[in-house]
Design goal:
single chain, 265 residues, alpha/beta, Rossmann fold, 8 strands, elongated
C-alpha cells in the first residue's frame, strides 16, 4: 500500500524504529518525524535522509503514525493530534501500559490502532516485541506492521490482555540482564580480578551463553544441566542461587513490572 510513516518521538527508541523502517524497505522519502530539539532533528535528518516536519505537517501527510512518546506524555500528544489526521490513519503505539482503548478514548472517530511493546535491542535489530491489533486494522496494515517489526528482531502477536506480561518479560527484560551482568562483574572484582578483566570475561561469558542458547536447539534447562557436574563448582553456585530463592526473586520482580504497566494504562 502507498504509505507515508510519521514518527512522533525521536529519542533512542524512535531512532531505532526509524532505522528498522528503512531496513524493512520503507523509502527514506516516505518517512518523516517531529522533534522539538533542533540539534537532534538536524542529526537525524543528516543520518537517515528523512524529513523533519511540524506536528501539523506530519499529521496531514502520514498514513501511518508511530507514537514513540513516554507514557506520561501520551495524553497530551493525543490531544494535540485529535481531529488533525485522517480517520484511516494507522496509529501504532509503543508506550508502555497504554491500552488501545485509552488511546481511542482521547481521539474522535475510530482510528485503527496497534499496541506494541518493544525493547532496546531493537537498536541493533535483535529486539523482542509483542503486538496487539485493535478493531479496524486492515490486512494491508497488518502486513506492513509485521514486515516492519520483523526488522526490529522477533515480534509475536498476543491478545492485548497479555501486553503487561510482555512488558514484564521482554520490555523490561534487558534491564534485568544488565543488572545481572553488573552483579557478576562486581562479584568477580570482589574475588580479586581487575574490573576491566572482570567486565571482559563476564560480557563474553554472557554473550557466548546467549549465542549457544539461540543456536544449539537445547532448552535452557538442558544447557544448564550439561554444564553442571555433580558436586562441582557450578553446582555450588546454583545451590547458592536456589538457597537465595532466585526464581522467586525474578518472578516477584516481573510481577512488579507487570503491575506498574497496568497502572500506566
Amino acid at each position: 500500500m502507498a504509505n507515508h510513516v510519521g514518527v512522533i518521538g525521536a529519542g533512542v527508541m524512535g531512532e531505532a524504529l526509524i532505522a528498522a523502517l528503512i531496513r524493512s524497505g520503507v523509502n527514506t522519502t516516505d518517512i518523516s518525524f517531529t522533534e522539538k530539539r533542533a540539534e537532534r532533528a538536524q542529526e537525524l535528518e543528516a543520518r537517515y535522509s528523512i524529513s523533519h516536519l511540524s506536528l501539523q505537517e506530519l499529521l496531514s501527510k502520514a498514513t501511518t503514525i508511530l507514537l514513540v512518546v513516554k507514557p506520561q506524555d501520551m495524553q497530551a500528544t493525543l490531544r494535540e493530534m485529535d481531529g488533525r489526521c485522517d480517520q484511516k490513519t494507522l496509529l501504532i503505539s509503543f508506550a508502555a501500559g497504554k491500552t488501545i482503548k485509552s488511546i481511542a478514548d482521547e481521539l474522535e472517530g475510530n482510528h485503527p490502532i496497534v499496541r506494541v511493546m518493544p525493547n532496546t535491542p531493537a537498536l541493533i535489530g535483535l529486539g523482542a516485541s509483542g503486538y496487539s491489533f485493535g478493531p479496524g486494522v486492515d490486512e494491508d496494515q497488518k502486513s506492513f506492521l509485521r514486515t516492519f517489526l520483523a526488522a526490529t528482531g522477533v515480534a509475536i502477536e498476543v491478545p492485548e490482555n497479555l501486553q503487561d506480561a510482555v512488558t514484564a518479560t521482554s520490555g523490561s527484560g534487558p534491564a534485568y540482564f544488565f543488572a545481572f551482568v553488573e552483579a557478576m562483574v562486581d562479584g568477580a572484582v570482589a574475588l580479586g580480578l581487575a574490573r576491566e578483566d572482570a567486565t571482559q570475561l563476564t560480557i563474553q561469558t554472557i554473550t557466548g551463553a546467549a549465542a549457544l542458547l539461540g543456536q544449539s536447539g537445547d532448552s535452557p534447562k538442558t544447557l544448564r544441566e550439561k554444564v553442571t557436574s555433580p558436586n562441582g563448582t557450578t553446582a555450588a553456585a546454583l545451590a547458592s542461587f536456589s538457597q537465595s530463592e532466585l526464581s522467586e526473586v525474578v518472578a516477584k520482580a516481573m510481577q512488579a513490572a507487570a503491575k506498574r504497566s497496568q497502572e500506566l494504562g
